[in-house]
Design brief:
alpha+beta, about 290 residues, Double Stranded RNA Binding Domain, 10 helices
Length: about 290
């Protein structure tokens, strides 16, 4: 589990050295004399090595994570991060992007982190990856965005523009770049089509909606038609999201033969990542 700043600040003293791990090889070594030293354990050339990063609080938790990210970039390029300082002058866009991404990993859901990197590798790196940050112009960023817009992926193009700006905001304070070229193209992005949300169903319309579902005949296969009809009524009776209904499995339902039947939706399928308990009415049990 990732460290918190307060855990490092108020780490107690012991008679012997001990470690507080932040993950991915990074830890702080707490000495009996009160010193707190950042260390990064890594492997290079088949050997385990140790990189000294500095002492806390002169080197903050955020600074230590940044050094870890820089070291990972160096390792990815086949360089030993402990042999010499990771170069900052002439840093390419891909180097900076991967360091920025690695620095954010602890705060991102794994699936979101993977989508973000996939987006960069598919669209940004082919156009900008090999170029030094200081050499990239607004025209370069716009050309990359226009390529994505051309395939109709307007939401992706806007996200990429945001990612480029975030990477430059990460790079500029470290001397890797001087300005953000993506900051000047906002007004040139193609506008997204206006979203038309489905109108809500009012209380007076509910009986009509129930009748319409009950009379649904949109599929030729009678069995599939019955399942679809039951699934729509089930979703309405339980106030579940459609994904929760579609992905439900039988082992999630408990006590269907008792007076207190329950649908136990596991945390990994819930938006808030908490287990969700749904009491089931008699009508819902009948549908199941």
């Amino acid at each position: 589990m990732a460290l918190k700043e307060l855990e490092v600040r108020y780490a107690g003293l012991r008679q012997k050295d001990y470690k507080l791990a932040d993950g991915e090889g990074l830890y702080v070594l707490v000495r009996p004399n009160g010193s707190k030293l950042w260390r990064l354990k890594y492997r290079f050339g088949g050997k385990e090595k140790l990189l000294s990063i500095g002492a806390y609080p002169q080197v903050s938790l955020a600074d230590a994570r940044l050094r870890r990210a820089e070291a990972k970039v160096a390792l990815g390029q086949g360089r030993d991060p402990g042999a010499r300082e990771v170069p900052v002058h002439g840093t390419t866009f891909e180097e900076a992007a991967r360091a920025w991404h690695a620095n954010r990993l602890a705060s991102l859901e794994p699936s979101h982190a993977e989508r973000l990197m996939t987006r960069l590798e598919r669209d940004a790196f082919p156009a900008l990856g090999a170029k030094p940050l200081k050499a990239i112009t607004s025209a370069d960023v716009l050309a990359m965005v226009r390529t994505v817009e051309a395939r109709g992926a307007l939401d992706v193009s806007r996200r990429l523009k945001q990612h480029v700006s975030q990477i430059y905001r990460f790079a500029i304070p470290q001397g890797w770049a001087e300005q953000d070229p993506a900051a000047y193209i906002t007004d040139l992005l193609k506008p997204k089509p206006r979203v038309r949300h489905m109108p809500r169903v009012g209380v007076r319309e509910l009986p009509e909606l129930v009748c319409a579902i009950d009379q649904y005949d949109g599929e030729e296969n009678p069995r599939r038609r019955a399942i679809t009809r039951a699934a729509m009524l089930f979703t309405m009776l339980t106030w579940a999201r459609t994904n929760e209904t579609r992905l439900a499995t039988w082992d999630e339902f408990e006590g269907l033969e008792t007076q207190e039947p329950i649908w136990r939706v596991p945390a990994e399928r819930m938006k808030m990542e908490r287990e969700h308990l749904v009491p089931l009415s008699d009508q819902t049990v009948t549908l199941l």
